[in-house]
Amino acid sequence: MSAMPETSEFVLASAFERLVSEQHPIVLVRDVVQADASLNPKLLQLWRELHDGGWLSLGTEAMRAEAMPELARMGEASGRSLLSVPFAFTSLVLAPLVEATPNLADEFLTEPLEAGPVSGRIDLDSSAGPLLFDYVGPRAGYYQLAKSGPAIVLRRYLAASQPVDGLDAGVPVLAFAASDVRNAAERRLDAQAKDVVQLLHPFFVFQYGHLLGAAAAALDSAIAYAKERRQFGRAIGEFQAVKHELANAWVALDNARYAINALAQADGAQALQRLLGITDRLVAAGTKLATRVTVQIHGAIGFAWEHDAHLYLKRVYKTSAQMTHIAGQLIAICLNEDSMNCK
Fold first, then answer.
1. Burial level of 40, CB count in 10 A (0-12/13-18/19+)?
2. Which member of 94, 105, 186, 230 has the greatest number of CB atoms within 10 A?
């Protein structure tokens, strides 16, 4: 699977891919946080360029319709580079909320979105569990889009502890306790279930594209390695067992791409709800398969910390778990509430 073609049909995606590939090489994934727990200055510079280029406004009313057909490809570009800043939440969730909610930026956000990365999570049910955020610095804002009774709320947390290693090797996590939830600043939003479904549509498309891009980059490396590595006098890619594994992974990712494209074209909350579960299953299964195969094809070196294979695998497993959780929540609130809310 090669990188997306640079054609006039995908002007935004091509420009975004150039920016991310140039400013966020894979090496940055291994050095997100400095010794003093501050964010890598190169990531802060990338964030400023994302703002200056208007990328942090993709989810706003003025940009949404234009950007929507290209979001999957933009997500793929971010996945291939293993983008380590929470671009999707900021641009496609928080920015449109700020646009739709008077004074939210002035009275609730810790600082303007362009000042630096903010971290966010989406919790649309009341199930108990660890409250973990991707770490983006000690002074950054940490926001939770949540459902509190019948209301949709935005909660703000301030970092009060040091980050720890998470499943994703490139993104440390910050844990908040139950007392932090009780003390969190909260703003009730003028939104219902149907509004949240529509709000998160671009977010899902981009994030599933991100998963696909990470898995495709991993599989590309496995295919290249299978052509170079020789055993018993032949390239290992010539052996049927290896060839079948690579082909199965390629087909799984192709199926995932078709599903993401269908999801991007979903018209209305009911169509989105119907396609969401299908897309989530195909993307999760395909991307996990491709990254597992990548590690296996590389043999012993594929399990080494120095190799990039585990970076792709861990990003896919972490992000797919998050997306499956959010998708399940979204489908559940549509099923459990008045069906009119999700039409």
1. middle
2. 94
Domain presence at residue 130: no
* pLDDT tens column, 48-98: 999 999 999 999 999 999 999 999 999 999 999 999 999 999 999 999 999
Q: Which of 177, 173, 139 is nearest to 159 (CA)?
A: 139
Q: What is the pLDDT of residues 106-117, one digit of tens each?
A: 889 988 888 899
Q: What domain range includes position 304? A: 193-342
- Assign residue 290 the CATH number of its domain: 1.20.140.10
pTM of the entire predicted model: 0.93
